[in-house]
# Entry
Amino acid sequence: MENGLILTVQDLNVELDHRSIIEHLSFAVKKGDIVTILGPNGAGKTVLLKCLLGLLPYDGEIAWEKGIKIGYVPQRLPFIKDIPLSVMDFFDLKGAAEQEVRDIVHAVGFGEEFFERKIGDLSSGQFQRILIAWGLVGNPQVLLFDEPTTGIDIGGEETIYNLLARLKEERRLTMVLVTHDLSVVYQFSTHVICLSRQAVCYGPPREVLTPESLQNLYGGGMKYYQHKHR
Amino acid sequence: MLSKRMALVAGPLGHLTLPGIALALMYGFDVSIGAFPFVILGIILIWLFELKTKLPMEALTAVVFASAVAVAFLFLPVEQAETALVGDISSVGSWETGISVVVALFLFFVIKKIYPKMVLINVSEDLAGSEGVNVREYNLIYLVLIAIIVALGVKMVGGLLTAALVAIPASAARNLSRNLSQYAFGAMVIGSISSFVGILLFKLTGLPAGPLIILASTAIFLASIFLKNKRTFKGRLSRAT
# Structure
C-alpha cells in the first residue's frame, strides 16, 4: 500500500437484520496512527470494529496491508467466568510460546504469581490488562480495542491509556479504538472518526471536534470542554 | 462441555434418541445405532430453530424433548419403556463394549485436538473469529461429537438420563477445579467413578444400573458443593487474617 497506509476503508455499508448500521463510511489509517472511533450508543462503533476483523458481512471495501497481524481486545467476555480458566490456561488457548506470554504479561505489569490465578477471581481492571496482553501475543502490528473501561483501577498508578501509550511506543503499534471518553480522544489519539451511522467528522481531534460536530454527533445538550492538559 | 448453555444441548439430544431407541428395541438392533440418526436429526432441528426463532435454548429444549418423547411412546411397547428411558447396561455384550471403547478412544483424541479452540469459542465467538478460527466448522464438529457421545450414553443409562450423565460429572468437576486441566480431568474421573459405583451397586442390589450411575454422580456433585463451600470459606478466612 502507498504512503505508509495500513488500512483503507472505502464506502463501507453494513446492514444487520435488514437494518442499516453503517452507511458510506470511508477512511484510511497510517502506520503509527491512533484512531479513535467516537459516537453515541448504537452508532455502529463495535460493528465497525467487527467488520475490520472480518467477523461481520459488509458491502464496500476494507483493505489491510498484506500479511498484517491484528490483535483484538474485546469489550467484555461475559461467558469467561463460566469456565474454570487460570490466566495461563487463557493464554494457552492462543497457542503462544510460554516465554512470550511471560514477557507480555510482565509488560502489562504482572508478576509470575499471576499465572496460577483464576480468571474469575481477577478484578475488572486486572482482567482488562490481561485482555490487552492477550491481544498482544503473537506480536501484532495493529491493536483493535473495543471501549477500554475508563476510570477503573487497573492496579498501580498507570491508567489504561498510559499503559496503551507506553505499549504503543515499545511495540510500534497502530491502534484503532472505540471510546466514549472525550479526554482520551484529545490526549491520546491522532485521528478521530465521529460515527453516527455515517461519519459526522473525520480527522485530527483538535481540528474536527468542534461544538457543532459534537452536537451533530450526540444531538443537542452535549456539554463541551476542550481539556488542555498538555 | 459445560460451558455456556451447551450442556443443555445434550438434554434435548438425549431425549431425541427415544424414537430411535424404540425402533432399535422393537426390531432388535443396537440402541446406539438406532439413536444416532435421531441425534443428528435433533442437531439439525435445534440448529434450524435457533437460526429461525432466536428463542432461548431452554424453550427449544422443552419443544424438542416433549415431541420426541411423545413420538417414541406412540409405538414403543410399554414393557420396553424402562429400557428406553433408563437404559440396560447389563444387556451390553463384550463385542459392543469393545466397539464402545474404540469409539470412546477416538472421541478422546479428537476432543483433545480441538479442545483449545472449542474453549476459545465458548469464551467468545468473536475472539475466536479474530484468531482465524472457523467458528461454524468447530461448532459442527462439536455437535457431531456430542451426538456420538449421546448415542453411546443411551446404551448405558437410556434416553432420559443421558443428559444427566453428560452434565453432572462436568458440573461436579467445575465446582472443584481451579484450572482447565483439573476441570477436564476431574469430569472424566468423576464420570468413571460414578459408572463404576453405579454398576457395583447394581450387582449388589439388583436395582436398574442406569439410575444408579446417575445417582452416584449426583452424590459426588452434592459432595462437590460441600467441598467448594468449605474451600471458599477457608479462602475468606485466610484473606481476612
User: Anything to note?
Assistant: Residues 135-176 of chain B form the longest helix (42 residues).
